[in-house]
Every structure is written in structure tokens, then in C-alpha cells.
Amino acid sequence: MFKNVIVRKPSKTICDGITSSPELGAPNYSLALKQHSNYIKALKSCGVNIIELEALEKFPDSCFVEDTAVLTKKCAIVSNPGAKSRNKEIQYIIPALKQFYSDENIEYIKFPGTLEGGDVMMVGDHFYIGKSARTNKEGINQFISILNRYGLSGSEVTLDEVLHLKTGVNYIENNNLLVSGEFINKKEFEKFNKIIVDINEAYAANCIWVNGTIIVPEGYPQIEKAIQKLNYKIITVDTSEFKKIDGGLSCLSLRF
Question: Catalytic positions, please?
Fold first, then answer.
């Protein structure tokens, strides 16, 4: 069960965020704020305490706090983002982490290693780490070494098509896994009950489990029906403005 969630307000510079889908247009700041507020409301309804950090105008993508750290039951691991324009965001997440973790339980990924939280999927005490354009082999090795010191484990998953691991695969507890594209037939995920996400709804592979409720992006009826069959409570949230800069539901929060 999650007790706390860290989020960060979108900045006015959000329209300058990194994107692989320029055809979607630039985000509308006012609408992004409204969608972010509704996201927070959905999280609160799941019984968590929200820590809302101020916007960072120098960093257009800074609302995607998930990439700055990985929070476990035993330690916090500050990432080292592979996107140069985002790397300095990590210094602004550390004060928030110190509210919940002692200095000796805050670990750091260091150059030449790079790692972004969007490439890390937690399944109990095991963490799957995507080797991507943003997370390299050295970063993965450092991350697994840190996990091992705390009695946790990790394993590498190679990505070929998507930005982050959780762009295409997300664990929603009870051995249920949302999978799309290149992850459908990955050997690493054979043991799970796989809910296959159709290519037309691939964005909806990025749902999040919060204390028994699944938060699903609005506008993807096929995956919503598939999750309903598993008897979860569902909340839908519109994240269309964040989709324009390659962001999904998990990207917008640190849940711990």
C-alpha cells in the first residue's frame, strides 16, 4: 500500500518539453494545470498523502517527477537522467526525499551511469530496469548493486522501440501486467497474467495501481474494459496535454 505521493506542478514552459510526437502540437498550459489538478484528486481518492512541489520554470519536463528518483521501502535512489536538459532536475527532488528518508538511506546513480525512473518497474522486492536511450548499462549495474545492499533485486530488460520501460509495460499487482508492443512476448514477463494492450491504445499501457484502484488514461475503452474484468476499481484521468510531451500517468508522480 502507498502512503505518500510526490508530484510537481507543471511549469509555464511545458510547451518546450521533449517530444517524439510533434504532430500532436504543443501542450496548453492552462489545460495541463487542470488535468494535473484532476490527477491529484484521483490520487487523493486512493487514500494517499500528496506532497505537491512548486513548478520549475527552467525545466519544461519537470512535472514528470518519476524520472528523478526510485523510492523503495528501504531506500531512495536518486537517478541520473540521460536527457541532458533534465539532468539537473534531480537536485530539486532531494529536499522532498529527505522528509521521508535519512541521508544514509538516500543513494545516487553517478556518471557515467545514467538512469531514469520511467525505466524502472517495481514488482514486490524485484525491480525490472529498461536499458534505453536514457538508461545505460552502467546505470543499471549501479542500481542493481544498490538494491542488493538493501536485500532487494533487479534485472535488465532491453528496449528496442519505446522511450521508457513503463511506456509499454506496467505492473498492476496481483500478478497482472499490462503489456504492449515489444513486451508482449518478452521472456522476462512469461510468469505474469498479461493484459495485452492493442496497438491502437498503446498509450494506455501506462496505467498505475494505487491502493487497489487502477488509474487509467481517459479515452481508451478497450483497456478500461479489460481492467474492469479483473474486478479493480477504476478512475480515468485525462492526460492528453502530457501525452504531447511523451508523458503518461506514472511519469507524473513518485508513489511510495
Answer: 164, 251
